[in-house]
Protein 1
Amino acid sequence: MRGRTGLRFGAAAAAILAIATLVVMADDTKPPKPAKPEKKMEAKAKKLGGAELYQIHCARCHAERYATERTAKEWKTLMLHMRVRANLPAVEAKAVLKYLQEDSGK
């Protein structure tokens, strides 16, 4: 009889272990934290301004360009492309675009 009791105890222990493992694994699969709120991005864009954001983000990959090198329309087209390539938040991209268009070659 001891053999069967040991098997029952072993099966029960294995079932408890399997359930505990599933519970622990379920806790590990928490949803990712939400992205930074848009308001924090707006505050950063206002704090730094378009010129500073331009220097920070654009100088990472290439030499600085003068705003007068392009027209306002050309800067808008370029910014659409570069926003994706540089992974810029919309608020920061708008601030940079505004800075470039203000001093553009019209």
Protein 2
Amino acid sequence: MTDNPIELVSPVWTHLSDVVVERAEGVHVYTSNGQRYLDFTSGIGVTNTGHCHPKVVAAAQAQIGKVIHAQINVYHHQPIFDLVSALKSVAPAELDTFFFSNSGAEAVEASIKLARQTTGKPNIIVFQGSFHGRTVAAMSLTTSKTIYRLRYQPLMAGTFVAPYPYAYYYGWEPEQTSQWCLKQLRHLLVTQTDPSETAAILVEPVLGEGGYVPPPPSFLPGVRQICDEHDILFIADEVQSGFGRTGRFFAVEHFDVTPDIMVMAKGLGSGFPISGIAARRELMARWVPGSHDGTYGGNAVCCAAAAATVQAICEEGLVENAARMGTRLMDGLRGLQAQHPIIGDVRGLGLMVATEFASAEGEPDKPTAKAVQQCCLEAGLFLLTCGAYDNTIRWIPPLVVNAEQIDQSLEIFGRALES
């Protein structure tokens, strides 16, 4: 037996640090001894409004004193009405009906259940490098790292994987990569899953855990065209790229495409566990009542916090700030790349930015990425890595970040590169 509380927590959770956070505000977290860190992880893309945004805190506090759990099958509550109204004002106009869950994985599973049941078709196409969650079905759709599937096989059947246009990895020009990947997607529909058996194509508008890779401009419109040609539903997984992260409210807006189903989580609740999917009313109306559900879905407190989150993002211009600060961050990182060729690529949209490390031979350089990450941590800056080879540092600060804080992070990162 042990009295050490850390040893009472399952070691299946990995840990970037042993830092114990006592409180957090905006872009900073604080330890019990008063040490302050710049948190450029946002709780893995969750605290888009910053830690403990006053409007979100106030909304949750007000609701928690009224009713915490108003189970949606039993009765309605006002916060869910407030949330659907807020989402309708920012989501693509065609996506006017919403279902809520607790996590990104649950929302992904809801999206494929909706697609399978309403189309009567079993198969789902995903893309190489995707991350869609850790539950069994969502894990079956995830291809960013083998660790997520390790000794959990066999997984859900009916999943097929197409290449994603990761131009830097392939070493091709972006448009060449896009057209090749679209050709391979069409080939998949001829060789592995016939359109008559394919319910949906599920795609991250910006590849997330797989490396923070924005697709070339022609790719998502090309996927949309293929879906339309073959009566296949287009599902956009906006779990990490949504709610202003890329400098648009949703990343699909960069590419002028509208999905049939959109998956939302992370930034929706500013840290409260809530996720959802949006779809056309006509599609949702074909989802058989009672065939999908969840005890905690649409929790009243979480809905209140999420509605306040959307309100804060809109009223405080956080989408526009993400675009401005993202440009400042990318410019600074490209300046550092010019001085340090070990940075093979700098890419991103808004404040969803990647710096990928590569050796002189062009091979993934995980040791350098991890060393730089550790140096930044010791200097007071939290950063995460991602990608199949863990050689990419991802930059996901809260959208409330200002120019001074961006510059401070670049200074810390530059010193880490020097060391």
Protein 3
Amino acid sequence: MVEVGQLSVRQDKPEYGQLAPSVQVLDGASPRGRRNLVLLVHGYAESQATASANFQTGINTLQSVAGQANSSLLSPIFKFYWPGDLDIPVLSQLSYPWQIRPAVESGLKLGDFLAGLAGPDGTPVEIHFVSHSLGARVALETIKHLLAGTKAPVLFRSMSLMAAAVTVHMVGNPSQLRPAATLSDKRQVLFSSSDLVLMIAFRLGETVALEGFFPEAVGSYGHPNGMWLQQNMKGFNHWSYWPSPQAATCLANFLQVPVAVPPPPNAIAAHSTADARSLPTAGVPARTLAARALG
């Protein structure tokens, strides 16, 4: 069985909490002294209980996919909770503009936490990010924060962004999130043009937040081209990803699980096969962040 741990930067309570001063290790596996860490990051408008349930569904589906391939899942996996929900549940989808700042600040806190870790005998820790929705912003801000330093013993091995609620222009801009978006050895985006949350609520929210005028989300079409592997999850809505065997197969391939047998057709009948396209044009050599000092 895969080891599962929990990390949190939520304070006070599991619903509508505030940002804690630092990341805390909750129950389950410990992240210290590990060679690999798989970090799951939830999106906005999710309480801790909802995020935990979604994470567990995703983990169970990943284990099922790995079992079909007679392989084991990279371990340990950590659920990361950040305060992405406000006390206005009826308007949760409209609260997006007010979730951006907590997402950015949560990324800074997570970056500081990862910088304090080390693998066996002081070797670098190898990180694999799996994020959903605005959790992609948390992941990218974490990497951006670590890139600003020079001594963090961290290797970013893979990054999987599902329904990424991040603007295309920000990840394409060298002075914003492009360095973070291109650092990982392997990078993929799972996207869907059927995602109305990203097509409507995200664009309105980003406009209100003054981060662009009705900007396109990475999770809508997988843009920019050439930056990562693009997995077209045709027909997926915003909440289809965690329970999907199809998405789990895409994630398992990036988490070093050789998927020999695809999920049974009846398990993914609601969605057509993912269309993988536009491989990254250039790989990024494996290195610690100490080798790159970006201001």
